[in-house]
Automatic annotation (TrEMBL):
InterPro entries the record matches: Chorismate_lyase_/UTRA_dom_sf
Keyword Signal: yes
Claim: Signal is one of the keywords in the record: yes
The protein, known as: Uncharacterized protein
Species of origin: Rhizobium pisi
Amino acid sequence: MSFCSSKRIRIAALAATAIVLGTQIAIAQEPSIGSQWLNSPTSRVEALAVIQTLNANLLSNASATLTLDRWCAAHKLAPEGSKIVAQRVGGQDKSADEHIRELLTVGPGELIAYRRVRLVCGDRVLSEADNWYVPAKLTAEMNQALKTSDIAFGRAVQALNFTRTNLSAKLLWSPLSEGWDMEGLTAHETGPLTLPPFLLEHRAVLKLRDGTPFSALVESYTDKVLDFPVPRLLAQ
């Protein structure tokens, strides 16, 4: 084999190796969805912005169900057209205590039903909710649907055109340490950001148009609300 031929073969081999390595590097740099929120200051700020965006959306809308419908669709958390459904959780009934009865303005002898559900979009549980409601304030069809189906509460009673009074909104976890806005951001190790199971907790009362309360809620929103690719930083 001539020197020139040998040289051409070596050059072709090096080029092929470069292509393979480049492909491997590109694949390695394409993180899985589960690890795209990184333990870096930028990613933590982005995570906080997303959590607070969801928090604001929930607080400004009467139905958490319909808000989660939109969140799920906008962030492609499930196949197109998917809607929130309620997985009933049995064996964990919580009777209405004096505080719940006071919130619902009902006496000790009036029936209050209880429903615990996981609100699911596709295969992701986006929230878990405790719901105490007054069956006498709903239609027979609504009560039947709530007893026998996986319909979410907000969708079942949507025809009531209800309003929502928020009692509290608690951030259960913050990506940034307290005082970061004055003391600056701490650099973290590279790698995935570890999220706790629950990020937000809301307490609220749903009311009829005349102001009569008919449902008291405790809603806990899970880390799955962030289960989408981290926002990209776009060049201007």
